[in-house]
Amino acid sequence: MARVREAKEYFLKFSTPTAEQPSSLTSLGGNVVDDFVLVHNESKPPAVILFGWAGCQDKHLAKYGNIYSDKGCVTLRCIAPLEFLFLRRGKMRALGRRVVDDIMDLKLNEHPIFFHVFSNGGAYLYKHVALALQERAAPLKVLGVIWDSAPGERRFRSMYLAFKAILESRWPLLAPSGSGVTAALGLGSWPLWPGLGAPIALAVALVMTAWWLAEVLLQAMTSLRPQPLDPLAELDNVPTAYTGAHLFLYSPADKLILAQDVERFAGHRRGMGELVTAVRFEDSAHVQHYPAHRETYTEAIYSFMRDVLSGRRPSPS
Length: 317
Hints:
Layout: E1 2-6, E2 11-15, E3 47-51, H1 58-69, E4 74-79, H2 82-87, H3 91-105, E5 112-118, H4 119-136, E6 141-148, H5 156-170, H6 180-184, H7 197-222, E7 245-250, H8 259-271, E8 276-280, H9 289-292, H10 294-309
Helix pairs in contact: 3-4, 5-7
């Protein structure tokens, strides 16, 4: 069963579990726990809330949702619009509140909750959801956050690569000849086709950088509490009540989110006394760890959730 809510502001999809969990393996009371079972309370299975990356489409995010629904979890998929992530950032606070309203309306606050956050786009939405939860003092039982290719500091190069990837995925004709997309369309036979995605992405990145700098300077002159240049800066201070334990899935081969950024953030949360687990994939690209290392990826998630749900400490990185 699934409920879909689509609005101009954002995309949200709620789905109920698809897997049948054997009753003999779903109770901790009898000390019977199977390594492959995540549901220990059939009436209140874990709820996993997925926040997609910038430019993500729900058909892609749904593949990750299946990782959880196949094990009997409830899933909620949320994708913030590009306009809010880059141009109308002031809308993100209201969007965070709206997602919290949906969580409460769907009664997911009665379930143990995990967040699965993809890239900085997902991390930015998660930050505003966490802020909204603090404002409302929402009684959520957040057990953990799974960080996939996130979070990272804002850098011009990362911004350019993100825009380039978004443009070429949305409009394949902008990709250079010889790429997988253009080859599939027959453009691979155009040896001189350079692709327009790169110059357009460069121009957009330059404009956005100038826009954000002007925005920060204006706020610095008119407000005692200007918005930080890095929109993810406040992630460092999200209370443990809205993070729980952490699992980081990242790679030094990721060109958009640097491994040292992820490791710095993980070290910061570990320094706050929180449980931190990390899996470092040496060769997978940005938000491509699951396609490249399917078995290792899913087992890392299942092990993390099993440990947290059963009260065990997750294995350290």
